[in-house]
Amino acid sequence: MEDCNMESLYERCMKVMPPVVKRATTMGVTKGEGCYLWSEDGRKILDFASGVAVCNLGHNHPKVVDAAEKQMKELIHGGHNVVYYESYVRLAERLVELTGGDTMVYFSNSGAEANEGAIKLAKYVTKRPGIIAFRGSFHGRTLATTSLTSSSSAYRKNYEGLLPSVYFAEYPYLYRTPYEMKDGKCPKEYFEQFENIFHTLIDPSMVAAIMMEPVQGEGGYIVPDKEFVQYVREICDKYGILLIFDEVQSGMGRTGKLFAYEHFGVKPDILTSAKGIANGFPLSAVIGKKEIMEQWPAGAHGGTFGGNPVACAAANAVLDELTDGGMLDNAAKMGDYFKEKLFALQKKYPSVIGDVRGLGLMLAMEMVHPDKTPDADITTAIRTKALEKGLLLLGCGTNHNIVRFIAPTIVTEKEIDIAINIIDECLKELTE
Ligand code: PMP
């Protein structure tokens, strides 16, 4: 036993878990508080990964801890297949109110599970088979959500033979567009391609839903053109297709608004939320227009753990902090501050930082070679060096060349300055 404890958590993990659990770092952690994690070797690490956009209020937020603790003493599990309970109903009531009052909510446990639910709901209600997703998308790791995921072929390899009738449209990734851009406007080709899908691949009357991340996450923190998002809404209205926004990563305050769709003036028919919704407890939600949700009858979908009382109590505390606690405003304000600092870094290192982009605290810099080709090596090197210097960062992007910054909404200018200084040092060392 003692020998075993000499090993790191990572080494012990590798003995009992398959390599599929290998991820961004080999760091073991013992504690989290606010914007910081403590590594098993006693280092205090500034965490700008937030468990991949989960701990949007920082680690172990006291109000979340209190709410969960109180709920745990009353009821840990009721089973939403069996009974109803206050934290679950209250959370749904609040989410309905916050999404305009004309919605209904179904709870599950993870982002992928919410997206599965949304896909099933769209198929159930429209009685159509087709789904259109986007190039660069990430919707989860279950078979149906893998079918709609195209940010890396590694996610699909050896799993092919996925859900049929899935088609991919171009996402307007304007930094790398092959089309001509006039006056900074989204090229017309992105609009035309939809009609092309309908002319060549599937008749629109056979399409149940278009599933879209309003800001693409794993694909590279890409903010789409507003007009394009509005056009997708129009396409849906024209053909009776349901618009599903996957807000698993972009939602719950990440972009400085509760949901990213608010930036585009476009409402989806169905929205999925997870990750940050309960600040670390497994919870997700399908939030759909009332007239659609009302057509989903008892027995058509379900699950044992969805809407767990403790997770829902935590989520109610999250909503309190984001709205009344002012954290949405802080995310917007700190996001602007952070982005300005990143633009300043781009000015300092123009040959390697090709692009700085994002909304609120969903920010990224795209790393390039001087000829603008993607530079995955420097991206990895920045992340490795930054962690050595006490800052945890993640990468993303189809070409693995995006450094993403997922600071919690409680972040202060001081912590952003610390992070910027570390990134500056890393870039200095790497470009010298
Ligand atoms: N959708 C998006 C946009 C995501 O970013 C993710 C996770 N990275 C998922 C779905 C899947 O969520 P989960 O891992 O909770 O299943």
UniProtKB/TrEMBL annotation:
UniProt keyword annotation of Isomerase present: no
SUPFAM superfamilies: PLP-dependent transferases
Gene3D superfamilies: Aspartate Aminotransferase, domain 1, Type I PLP-dependent aspartate aminotransferase-like (Major domain)
Pfam families in the cross-refs: Aminotran_3
UniProt keywords, alphabetically: Aminotransferase, Pyridoxal phosphate, Transferase
An annotated Gene Ontology molecular function: identical protein binding
Superkingdom as given in the UniProt entry: Bacteria
Pathway(s): Amino-acid degradation; 4-aminobutanoate degradation
The keyword Transferase belongs to this UniProt entry's keyword annotation: yes
Cofactor: pyridoxal 5'-phosphate
Catalytic activity: 4-aminobutanoate + 2-oxoglutarate = succinate semialdehyde + L-glutamate; (S)-3-amino-2-methylpropanoate + 2-oxoglutarate = 2-methyl-3-oxopropanoate + L-glutamate
EC id: 2.6.1.19, 2.6.1.22
Family membership: Belongs to the class-III pyridoxal-phosphate-dependent aminotransferase family.
Protein name: (S)-3-amino-2-methylpropionate transaminase
